[in-house]
Write a structure and sequence with these properties.
The complex is a heterodimer.
Chain A: H1 3-8, H2 15-22, E1 27-31, E2 37-38, E3 53-57, E4 61-70, E5 82-89, E6 94-99, E7 109-115, E8 123-128
Antiparallel strand pairs in A: 1-2, 1-3, 4-5, 4-7, 5-6, 7-8
Chain B: E1 6-12, H1 23-38, E2 47-50, H2 57-65, E3 71-73, H3 81-94, E4 100-107, H4 109-112, H5 126-130, H6 140-154, H7 158-172, H8 186-191, E5 194-196, E6 199-200, E7 210-217, H9 219-222, E8 230-239, H10 255-266, E9 275-277, H11 283-292, H12 301-305, H13 323-327, H14 334-346, E10 359-366, E11 372-379
Parallel strand pairs in B: 2-3, 2-4, 9-10
Antiparallel strand pairs in B: 1-7, 1-8, 4-7, 5-6, 8-11, 10-11
The chains are: A mainly beta, B alpha/beta.
């Protein structure tokens, strides 16, 4: 990843997420007052309003909430098919991702697998979780 | 019951492939036609409600029409903004602030090929950081993920989705303005190319040029209308999430609340509805809207549409001009839903007329992930 991409990637509220991503750690905001896990980051807890948020490493595990195999790429340089999914993390929040290294059905257990890329920090793909 | 506002005129812009007009000229021509139905002229407009007409859209449209309205609204809550505009305009009329509202839209997305499926790639937006890198088709993948979850939870089938497309086609075959009028069967839908599971090509709306205009006015001014004015019985809207990760339960939407509120204002129930104009950007959306609006219980939308219930002669005639799936989808469908609902209530829908239609519902949705919903209940006096 180029120095320019590193410096310009993300925004001030998400910097900690992407710094951790560079170390292949999936971090979420956690509220010290009510215990709420929050993704994507905000300046305060949406559950209780507290500003006592800190970044905590998530388990990196969850379940497929929904998935769709895409056969038409948004640009011609992307190979199809590929699977876009929404994963519900064990901590609660949902996030969009790609399912790699095998097939998954809705409800299946998955774990994070970081994907390196040129244009920015690694992004969290998910793969079938062998530990179930 | 006293009604506060009436739709006094409606019109479509040129539809399909439009090469001899601009978006602004299309809106102007449709506005003139709708005004003629209302027995009015451009100078009578004192409020402009538009979406996707460029930066400060209401200002641009007002200027183009040579008017200086006292009320402008370019609220963007997606393709269903136009149902929300009815909600806004009714309140402004009721408050005595405006008398004649123009609600309008036009797009040449087919001719200009300006529809983007890739989404934002800037890393400063939440979208660009957390969704675009996973290469969803905007908004096809988002609705596919919503549909897949509905199928998982309730056992909704690909055949039930396909029936929505087939039903819309049956209606389109009776509408000479519809873009797609060839016969279509459930097998045709299931045999069409898979775009993003569970969607086949025919589960996805058209992408053509089009638009329309609508004139909403006071009960007093509606008396001068050249055609039968149609009272707004209820209108409500709301929204949920822009990023799919932030959408709570995928299987229902803001339409639950907008529907409940609009029906309560109208003093009607889903059972009373003669014509439904749902926002059929995707086949699954219709199934979910039928549930959201209370035509059946949650999860029962799939079985509900079986056996041709939405088709001509069915128990709940829906998408009676052929919908976004077969008639026209100019990027934002909401205005055309209102146009068709009005024509059905006036009894001027020709071959596709639903007999004795008295209550019609136009239900708009918008956003890449079922983000907004706006319900309008219309009646006949």
């Amino acid at each position: 990843m180029s120095k320019a991409a590193r410096e310009t990637w993300g925004d001030p509220t998400t910097a900690a997420f992407w710094e951790a991503a560079r170390e292949h750690r999936l971090v979420l905001q956690r509220c010290a007052d009510c215990g709420h896990w929050q993704f994507y980051p905000r300046p305060f807890c949406l559950e209780c309003g507290s500003s006592a948020l800190s970044w905590k490493e998530a388990s990196g595990r969850g379940r497929v909430y929904s998935s769709s195999e895409t056969h038409m790429a948004p640009s011609p340089d992307i190979e199809t098919p590929y699977v876009v999914a929404v994963v519900e993390l064990d901590e609660g929040p949902k996030l969009m991702t790609n399912i790699v290294n095998g097939r998954c059905r809705i409800g299946d257990r998955v774990r994070v697998r970081w994907r390196e890329r040129e244009e920015g920090p690694p992004i969290p793909d998910f793969e079938p979780d062998p530990e179930g | 019951m006293t009604r506060k506002a009436y739709i006094a005129g409606v019109a479509e812009t040129p539809l399909g492939k439009v090469v001899d007009q601009t978006e602004l000229s299309m809106v102007a021509l449709a506005a003139k036609e709708a005004l003629a139905e209302a027995g009015m002229s451009v100078k009578d407009i004192d409020a402009v409600f538009v979406n996707y007409m460029g930066e400060e859209g209401s200002v641009q449209v007002g200027e183009y029409l040579g008017i200086e309205p006292r009320w402008g609204d370019s609220t963007d809550i997606g393709g269903g903004s136009f149902e929300a505009f009815v909600d806004h305009a009714v309140l402004a009329i009721e408050a005595g602030r405006i008398e004649v509202a123009l609600i309008a839209y036009a797009s040449r997305q087919r001719s200009r090929r300006n529809r983007q499926l890739a989404g934002a790639d800037d890393s400063y937006s939440i979208w660009g950081q957390f969704e675009t890198p996973f290469r969803p088709l905007m908004p096809i993948t988002h609705y596919a993920l919503i549909a897949a979850r509905h199928m998982h939870e309730f056992g909704t089938t690909p055949e039930q989705l396909a029936e929505v497309a087939v039903s819309a086609r049956h209606w389109a075959r009776m509408n000479e303005k519809a873009w797609s009028r060839d016969s279509l069967t459930v097998s045709d839908v299931l045999d069409s190319p898979v775009i993003a599971t569970p969607f086949h090509r025919h589960d996805i709306c058209l992408r053509v040029d089009g638009g329309g205009a609508l004139i909403l006015t006071t009960p007093e001014r509606a008396r001068d209308a050249a055609k039968k004015a149609i009272p707004v019985l209820g209108a409500a809207h709301g929204h949920t999430a822009w990023n799919l990760s932030q959408l709570g339960d995928f299987t229902h939407s803001a339409g639950v609340r907008s529907g409940r509120s609009a029906f309560a204002q109208a003093g009607t129930r889903p059972d009373d509805v003669d014509v439904l104009e749902p926002y059929d950007n995707f086949t699954s959306s219709v199934i979910m809207q039928i549930e959201d609006l209370g035509f059946c219980a949650r999860g029962e939308g799939g079985p509900f549409v079986e056996e041709g219930r939405l088709r001509p002669g069915g128990g709940l005639p829906a998408s009676t001009m052929g919908g976004g799936l077969s008639y026209n989808h100019p990027g934002a469908l909401g205005l055309l839903l209102l146009v068709e609902a009005v024509r059905q209530l006036r009894g001027e829908a020709g071959e596709r007329q639903v007999p004795d239609a008295r209550i019609a519902v136009a239900h708009g949705i918008g956003g890449v992930c079922n983000s907004s919903a706006a319900t309008v209940v219309l009646g006949r006096e």
